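User: Hi! I have a protein structure encoded as tokens and I'd like to know what sequence might fold into it. I'm fairly new to this, so please keep things simple.
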């Protein structure tokens, strides 16, 4: 009986060991199959890198400012008697904008003219009498002083009347009218904004490390998407003498022609300052760049081999040094050679060595000067 039990145990052990060996071999075979399998290739678009000539520029965000801009206001208090302008119209220097009521001053002017006439007659009479020693020198001096006072009083009243005739201090475009007929104005009350729009200023800041490249006379180009992609050109006309302690920027002022008044004070514009000769760069679409804190990179498509020796199309991650951006493009200063095939879309789902399938039926934007509807 014992021998039979021992024999059964030996047989069971052999059976279990055999089953275990078979299962182990099955698991090893499955693991080998999984190891040999590769994920399906990722669909990407690509572009062949080419060397381009880019002008050396410095980009900045600027603000348009008027060469001359004021809010025309009342110099003296008074009632608005006449308004001689329409909102938004162009006026010339010296054009009458508003006439305040001067009826009281006109009456004072008539009295002052009569006083001057009387003072002149007395003075002329005293001149004849003093020559004949008929009056004292003191009486003659009093008559001369009275004559001068009457003249001064007349000029004062005329100046008051003139100051109540409010004129445009320079040629430009008016804003929205802020007064009404019959309204009483105190001294300093606003009447209408007035801006001189041609030429016009653009003010922008550049980092202090780039300030040495800024010089008066450098060409400046403005791009304004809100105006249908219109471009304006001008010259750097002034540089600030100090560095802003808050931003460490130096303020630069450019002067541009503005026919038609398309540029308005307060507009934000994209300014580009031309710094000199063009340089050779590899231009890629901005979508091709994989931005990361440890460094920017791109994926270059190349022929690769799997661990089993199978050939496939894969990507190699390449660290790059970037330059300036222009429209949809970014300048690559180093890391990519002309002729290399670079992934332009789908970079976020790639890794070094990943298999890819190129499909260039639809390409991302790659325009150095896209129109507003393309942005």
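Assistant: Happy to help. Inverse folding works backwards from shape to sequence: for each of the 375 positions I chose a residue that suits the local structure. Here it is:
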């Amino acid at each position: 009986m014992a021998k039979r039990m021992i024999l059964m145990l030996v047989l069971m052990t052999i059976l279990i060991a055999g089953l275990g060996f078979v299962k182990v071999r099955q698991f090893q075979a499955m693991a080998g199959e999984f190891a040999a399998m590769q994920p399906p290739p990722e669909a990407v678009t690509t572009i062949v890198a080419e060397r381009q000539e880019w002008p050396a520029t410095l980009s900045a965000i600027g603000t348009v400012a008027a060469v001359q801009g004021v809010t025309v206001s009342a110099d003296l208090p008074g009632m608005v008697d006449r308004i001689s302008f329409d909102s938004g119209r162009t006026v010339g220097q010296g054009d009458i904008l508003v006439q305040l009521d001067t009826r009281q001053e006109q009456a004072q002017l008539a009295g002052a003219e009569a006083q001057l006439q009387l003072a002149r007659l007395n003075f002329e009479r005293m001149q004849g009498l003093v020559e004949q020693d008929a009056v004292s020198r003191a009486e003659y001096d009093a008559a001369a002083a009275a004559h001068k006072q009457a003249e001064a009083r007349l000029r004062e009243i005329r100046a008051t009347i003139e100051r109540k005739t409010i004129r445009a201090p320079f040629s430009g475009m008016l804003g929205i009218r802020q007064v009404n007929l019959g309204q009483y104005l105190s001294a300093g009350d606003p009447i209408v904004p007035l801006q001189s729009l041609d030429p016009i200023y653009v003010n922008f800041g550049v980092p202090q490390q780039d300030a040495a490249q800024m010089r008066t006379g450098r060409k400046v180009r403005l791009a304004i998407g809100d105006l249908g992609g219109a471009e304006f050109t001008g010259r750097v006309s002034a540089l600030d003498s100090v560095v802003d302690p808050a931003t460490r920027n130096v303020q630069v002022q450019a002067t541009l022609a503005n026919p038609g008044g398309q540029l308005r004070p307060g507009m934000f514009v994209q300014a580009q300052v031309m710094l000199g000769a063009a340089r050779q760069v590899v231009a890629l679409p901005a979508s091709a760049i994989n931005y990361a804190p440890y460094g920017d990179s791109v994926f270059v498509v190349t022929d690769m081999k799997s661990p089993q020796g199978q050939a496939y199309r894969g990507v190699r991650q390449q660290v790059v040094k970037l330059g300036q951006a222009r429209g949809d493009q970014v300048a690559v200063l180093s890391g990519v050679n002309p002729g290399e095939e670079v992934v332009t879309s789908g970079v976020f789902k790639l890794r070094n060595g990943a298999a890819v399938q190129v499909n260039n039926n639809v390409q991302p934007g790659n325009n150095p000067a896209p129109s507003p509807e393309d942005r």
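A useful reference point when you look it over: The chain has a mean pLDDT of 79. Feel free to ask if any position seems puzzling.
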